[in-house]
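Researcher: Please translate sequence to structure tokens.
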Amino acid sequence: MDHQTTRQITNLDGFPKAAELIEITGAHALEASDRAIFNQLLQIAHDSGRLTEADAEWEVTLASLRQASSRHESNDRIRESLRRLRRTEVKVRYISPKTGRPRVLETTLLPATDTDVEDSSDATVQFTITKGLREILDRSNRWGRIKCEVSYAMTSKYAIALYEMICLRANRNHSVETIKITDFRELLGVPPGTYERGLDFQRKVIEPSLLEVNGLSNMGVEIALRRKHARAPIEAVSLTWWRKSGEEFREAIKERNRSKVGRMARLKGQAESVSPSSAEGKAAIDSDLEAYLAENRAKEKERKAKAIIGEPSFPLPAPQRLQTV
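Model: Translation complete:
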């Protein structure tokens, strides 16, 4: 049927990645490079038209994977990524076609790879996809269009996961969704037991993700942290997203085409240069916000406790905005 993911054609917006793969959990052992390489392998399989064929196998040169991800001359990092993709067990949720009930497939993203031993210029890797995953993809009817070059441009694995989540939601009639914090952490691939303090989660996960998604992709996103009261732990996050256009869209393309060296500094500088009167209507920037939070956290909590619920408490560097309610 035309609404099946496997029947969609790769276009300028990217290749169609099944929702079941975007919403995997248990992938916290994967690094940003692993996620980016898997996206490229998945696009190769999809574009071949044989993604769901039994015993289908694909082959790609290690050099093409390496050149897309880094300027390294060695294939060592590519081999390490392939190894993690073979060894990391993830959970893929789907609806059983027989019973209509939710089920979970526990599998690795790559069951096996076959590579040349020598690192010659034409060394290749052959790969395949597990039978269970193939069957799920064959029934998939939800997808997000993913640009591999965007994934490769990002250095944060949380940014890649957030980018894919937003792409999956890009064509919805509404552009706001609230997700429980436990589910959000799993979808981003945050390791259990890490960044449990709100400020740590904000600085190590949320802020880098917003910076790269807003600075490098064709989508924009804002995240609001939800609490019952100012001193309570985070219980949910609210996502707001939009498709970029005009100068905002062009700036993201320009940055993707620049060197990764100094990229984070450029993105932060770009955020600090946005004025309150920008076309996107972003909030004014407080460039010293992080220092302010570190030095005056207790005072800020008291102020927010008196604030009206539902009102944004502070802006973060645009183009992203993090709100705490």
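Researcher: Any highlights?
Model: Confidence is low (pLDDT under 50) at residues 273-293, 306-321.
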